[in-house]
Design brief:
By secondary structure, this protein is an alpha+beta fold. It contains 13 helices and 14 strands. It folds into two domains: 293 residues, Glycosyltransferase (Alpha/alpha barrel), CATH 1.50.10; 105 residues, Alpha-Beta Plaits. The strands form six sheets. It has a four-stranded antiparallel sheet with strand order 9-11-7-12, with helices on one face. Helix 1 packs antiparallel against helix 2, helix 1 runs parallel beside helix 3 and helix 7 runs parallel beside helix 11. It starts with a helix and ends with a strand. The N terminus is likely disordered.
Length: 461
Amino acid sequence: MGVNWEASMKIREFVMAVVAGVSMGVALPTSWGVEPSARLSAAERQRADAMIAKAIAYLRTKQDPASGGWSVPAQGPAYPAITGLVVRGMMMQPGVTQDDAHVAMGVKFMLNYQQADGGIYDKVLPGYNTSMCVTALSGVNTPQAKDAVKKGVEFLKSLQFGEGAISREGMGESPKVVGRNDPFYGGWGYGRHGRPDLSNSAWAIDALHAAGVEPTDEAFKRALVFLQRTQMVEDVGDTKINDMAYAKGSKQGGFIYATSVNKDRVGVGQSQAGEVAESLSGPKGTVAHVVLKNGDDGKPRTLKKGEIENRLKATLEKSARFEVGGAEMQVVLGPSSDGESASEFDVRSSIEDAKQLQRIVGSTFREDVESEKSIRVSEVTAWRGESRLRAYGSMTYSGFKSYLYANLAKDDPRVTEALRWIGENYTVRENPGMGTDGLYYYYVVMAKALDAWGSATVSTP
């Protein structure tokens, strides 16, 4: 279709960084010894304002003068969501209003893509594009924008999996009517995998919140069911939070990506961050962290969990020199897009000798790693654990923010568990659980979530 999606994503990430910069003063961990009232100093605020002004000036130069949009491919389809991100980011900065010539052109561009069904999109990703545009247009005080927001909200409600879902012929993202017991219930999806996910759901909830939809609305009530099923904590005391099998026994508190991998693998959960070993028990042992090298195509190699397990078993069976009779091992996947394979993983073992595990793992994956340094072994006080889907940064802030927009009380167990995870994993150096993947996305949802929380500090261990 001639879409330069890579260039579009670069603009999207840059805009997200701008939005993060104007969203709030940075929330600091209390362990740093910062007073709760502290935010940016006058000097820091001045530097931030200068950075934001420079970024906005840059964005002005990237606007398509013919259409008024940003990152508009010549061949189509257009992604009005990117224009919504730019307009929203610019208008968050004091002094930039709807009367700004560039903003006005961007608003007109979005309005031109409103369809008869109320959505704001061009052929693809109707939910995502509409969510971003509704959020942006909610800050524009004109009759045309208000009417577009009203129609956009109704369209988004119709895309939510639940009793009120509307299936539209020819729309790949079309949801289906499902009951509360269905893992899809209450969520929104991009459409590519035939199931809802937390990312798209959180953007839709952002749009409903920005448009002034009351938290008592049925759309919010349905969304809470989906949100709880993506939060990795089974219960808190007598309060049941996640009723899905993949969360049984989990005490993480953070969020994963989806309740299902796709339309065929339903109810098994999905985390882009892979797995984590919880409920650690047993005697002391060792853990080997393995990072696979890149393939001939320059992309990281991946191995399926079953293959990793089988190869380790074969190594022990074929090599008599490894005198580790009765040794047990557990494989825990690292970041994974499909929940089945990964380019890095942990091998947890009952073997107490770190050098012995290094030899075993090194012998098994010698051809798959760059060097011995790609396998790091450490001793642990309890090696055995339950392998569960791993909560991670960007999704946890998305879920936490969505809870606040749904008007849950600050002492609600769902909120406090998410906040506990945030405190335990607080960092601005990476997207916890994902490294630098999705970093700007992480910054945006982090800033928006902590701004919604309203405190200048986060409690850390």
